[in-house]
Amino acid sequence: MIQKALRIAVSGALLAVATPLLANDANNDAKIQDYINTLTELGFPAPAEGEMVHIPPTMADLDASDLHPELKKVIRKGYDLFTNTQQLRGEYVFNNMNCSSCHLGEGRMPFSAPIWPAAVTLPGFRGKNGHVNNLEERIAGCFTYSMNGKSPAYGSDTMLAMSAYHQWLASGVEMYPKKKIYGRGFPAPARPAELSYARGEQLYKDNCAVCHAEDGSGLRVNGETVFPAPWGDMSNNWGAGIVRLKTGAGFIKNNMPLGQPNSLTDQEAWDIAYYMDSQERPQDPRYTGNVAETLEKFGPTFHKHSLYGQARESDGKILGDHANTGEKPFLKPDTVRPRTFD
Ligand code: HEC
Ligand code: HEC
Which among 8, 177, 238, 285 has most CB atoms closer than 10 A? Predict the structure, then answer.
């Protein structure tokens, strides 16, 4: 079972990197056309009229570039932290995730929330926390929620390396681009009229459990994450973007099963997202001590898209009604704070 899963995973991982490997620092028309062809063959839509296509550079491009050797070292460190974030386990990360567990292709893959758009659209206003965020605060957000952790200090060596990697991937893109960015985020198919827990459960068992395990715990071997945990204590917490049903459905449709993007129907992707979101995970760091109150406070900007605070269809359990923070020995990191310029 594990061997089969590993074999599929390896071919999947190869596929995930194959596209970005076409990258070249010259984003010329022929390169871009090749890039789009590869993506449309994988079932992704071609760019809409007026959308911007950017092929982020690879580590091979970095080696070949004439950037200062010290800068190359910092960008490489950022890459290393992004793809092996478990090295920050117990300090800033308290689950089994790497940043690249969700941002496939080392953060370069279109339709898998490529990370470089943040470098050219921030500082910007984020509805999630109601103030203007810079790139560091955006990265801090994924540490806080997706990694069930806390952010390295703003301006620290770790934060500098990570933001350098994001910014370098955006090489050549103008700041605050006017055009819409092709393949940004985890675009979701339209929500079907009805979602089914029972269908989602069966689909998960048939298509996902081989790698992520029936109980959603994934697979760790010798302290390394082979398959991350889609729910449970070792997963992202309730405040993470992927718990929004449409983001979950978009992630699944575009990326899973690994190596087979766009193989599930829209209904299937949504049913699985609904099933996954009906399982428990560590508490939202914005928790006030009461799930109904937390839902009321953060429903409008966030949880109206998740199942947090709602009764689970299968047994009526109120989701998120607990004080469990997983392996993390605290609830609220200090980066979850208001900011005003009045
Ligand atoms: C559990 C899944 C998950 C993990 C792990 C994760 N992220 Fe994210 N990330 C998301 C989601 C979901 C979004 C929002 C995408 C959207 O808006 O549709 C996002 C968005 C981002 C963005 C903004 C992209 C944009 O288009 O502006 C950046 C930057 C980012 N993440 C960096 C990181 C970093 C750095 C880490 C590791 C410390 C990380 N992420 C770990 C799920 C994850
Ligand atoms: C062949 C093994 C494999 C299969 C099958 C598979 N996944 Fe994954 N999945 C992975 C790997 C590996 C990652 C992390 C990506 C990376 O590290 O490159 C991942 C990441 C994820 C994530 C984001 C991280 C997390 O754990 O929350 C979710 C959600 C997810 N998969 C859901 C699914 C669903 C739903 C299915 C079934 C439709 C599925 N996967 C099928 C291997 C697999």
Answer: 238
For residue 9 and ligand 2, the question of a CB distance below 6 A is answered with: yes
**Separation of alpha carbons 301 and 25, rounded Å:** 38
Q: State whether the beta carbon of 211 lies less than 6 angstroms from ligand 2.
A: yes
Residue whose CA lies nearest to ligand 1 atom number 8? 142
- Give the ligand 2 atom nearest the CA of 204: 37
What's the 113 CA to ligand 1 centre distance in angstroms?
7
Amino acid (one-letter) located at 144: T
Question: Which pLDDT does position 32 carry in this prediction?
Answer: 94
Cα(87) to ligand 1 centroid in Å equals 18
d(CA 15, CA 22): 12
pLDDT digits 0-9 by tens, 96-112? 999 999 999 999 999 99
Whether ligand 2 lies within 6 angstroms of the CB of 252 is answered as yes
Distance CA 282, CA 44 (A): 33
Residue 99 CB-density burial (10 A; 0-12 exposed, 13-18 middle, 19+ buried): buried
Residue at 172: amino acid letter: G
Specify the residue with its C-alpha closest to ligand 2, atom 42.
258
pTM of the model: 0.94
Probe residue for ligand 1, chosen from 97, 98, 103, 245 as the CB with the greatest number of ligand atoms within 8 Å: 103
**Res 10 pLDDT > 70:** no
Distances in Å between the alpha carbon of 331 and those of 95, 194, 288, 340?
14, 35, 10, 23
Q: Are the C-beta atoms of residues 165 and 78 closer than 8 Å to each other?
A: yes
Type of residue found at 236: N
Share of the chain above pLDDT 70, in %: 92
What does the pLDDT look like over 241-299, one tens digit per residue? 999 999 999 999 999 999 999 999 999 999 999 999 999 999 999 999 999 999 999 99
The protein residue with its alpha carbon nearest to ligand 2, atom 12, reads 227
